[in-house]
Amino acid sequence: MKIFSSEQLYEADKATVERQEITSEALMERAGTQIFNWLHQRMQGAPVPIHIFCGIGDNGGDGLVVGRLLIEHGYNVIVYVVNCSDKRSKNFLLNYGKIKNATKKWPILMKSEADFPEINNEDIIVDAIFGIGLNRCPVGWVKKLIQYLNENKAFKLAIDIPSGLFSNSPLEDKEAVVNANHTLTFQTPKLAFFLPETASFVSNFDVLDIGLDLEFLQNTEPLAQLISKPEAQRFYKPRDKFGHKGTYGHALIVAGSYGKIGAAVLSTAAAFRIGAGMVSTFVPKCGYNILQTSIPEAMVITDKEEAFISDITVDFEPSAIGIGMGIGKNKATVEALKSIFQKKNIPFVIDADALNNISENKELLKLIPKNSVLTPHPGELKRLIGEWKDDYDKLEKVKKFSGKHGLVVIIKGAYTIIVYGDKLYINTSGNPGMATAGSGDALSGVITGLLSQGYDPLLASVFGVYIHGRAGDIAFGQMGYEAVMAGDIIDNLAEAYLDLLEQPEIENESNGEQ
Ligand SMILES: NC(=O)C1=CN([C@@H]2O[C@H](COP(=O)(O)OP(=O)(O)OC[C@H]3O[C@@H](n4cnc5c(N)ncnc54)[C@H](OP(=O)(O)O)[C@@H]3O)[C@@H](O)[C@H]2O)[C@@H](O)CC1
Ligand SMILES: Nc1ncnc2c1ncn2[C@@H]1O[C@H](COP(=O)(O)OP(=O)(O)O)[C@@H](O)[C@H]1O
Ligand SMILES: [K+]
Fold this sequence. Notes:
The chain is an alpha/beta fold.
């Protein structure tokens, strides 16, 4: 699914009105009706008081449509106009007129704190104060109203976007944003829903298709692509019936140091489970027995050093290399990195201490083969590109870094973002159970295993991040958040593949007749 900016959504709105030959009022009716249907389906006529707070723009107009439809269906509705200025939008005014015809209980005009109504914790609040047209931070009594609503325990449903949140620019005042329990957003989710500083305001959301012009949506380059099951299904490369282990490549994992051989075990296992034909693992001598015992399928090559990696020499041409997990920061290890980046001109997956070593020895950056994949968590990213002002500044900095060095950068987190030049892909799978040691090592193994099977680096990254998160979700389903360990994510890669490939059952025509 594509994520568009607010500017693009206004264009989509315009294109829809022109090409479908409808009025913008009709489009608003469509949008409001969808919200009403969502509520009506769940409330089934329940007489719970519904307080609808409408701004004076089109988001407020949507609120008025919802209010009118709810009133017409006999609900207990109180509509308020948050009268922050006299510049009401055309569609707001049209719907203001219509709601006045539908009820004797006219909307209550709010002009100051004195007008804040009493709301019970069991009531419902609909937030239609500001939508994507927010152009400055709410202040004064409007900010106080937002705080007043947030203090109340009533269920808060935001229309399009929680009021006070900018859809694709930085948060200015976190005290001035509605803390919505649920958001119903039109046509596409907004970028703010997925970034660490703002995602908490949008804990649950549904996307309502309001039929914006398909041609515009298809032909417009989005701000970002959201990755979930349908996209992952498209990226999957089916296994060849006549394939042999050579077809799926020979991955090399370079990982581990004394006390951190587990990192090598985890990434090797993940590379196998994701489907690499062969995996060789390069470890310091102390890792030999551990690897051979824990993963008999792996071939093990050792460094001349006992406790760390100093010189990576292998006697085959790997189809992909995953490097860095648990390797430490020994000087000799930095030299080994330098040398292997120069010797092997294939895309690498670069993780953990390899990233830290690069951050401390920036000359290494120039040696990394093009299209390699970097997998930093926020701490590693900060060391690599420096501090950022906010989430948007971070994205701009990473885009620049990715473009300059020709690298795929995976910003790991609750919503992992894959950056390749100007392109952003946002993953939707995964859960807090995955915040556990070694889950990043598993991800590096997954992406290395995909590269070795011939997925190109961007695809391996996007698909790998999705399937790793999906395996984590399946592990969560089996054991809850707390108990998940990195090994459980790897064990569930199998289920994640099965889930991805699951086809709806086709009815047998002779069902029941035999
Ligand atoms: N695009 C689509 O496809 C569709 C869009 N639809 C709906 O339209 C919504 C967008 O509507 P919109 O453009 O009228 O803007 P909206 O969010 O109501 O706010 C603008 C108003 O707020 C004001 N204002 C802003 N900031 C303020 C502040 N801090 N403090 C005080 N005032 C502030 C601003 O005032 P001004 O800056 O002019 O003083 C202006 O009056 C969108 O989210 C969706 O719900 C659907 O109906 C159909 C399809
Ligand atoms: N709250 C969360 N929601 C979804 N995924 C998460 C969450 N926390 C961590 N993860 C995922 O788990 C992995 C953690 O990686 P990392 O921090 O490198 O772990 P480690 O260094 O311990 O191996 C990343 O892929 C990240 O996206
Ligand atoms: K809103």
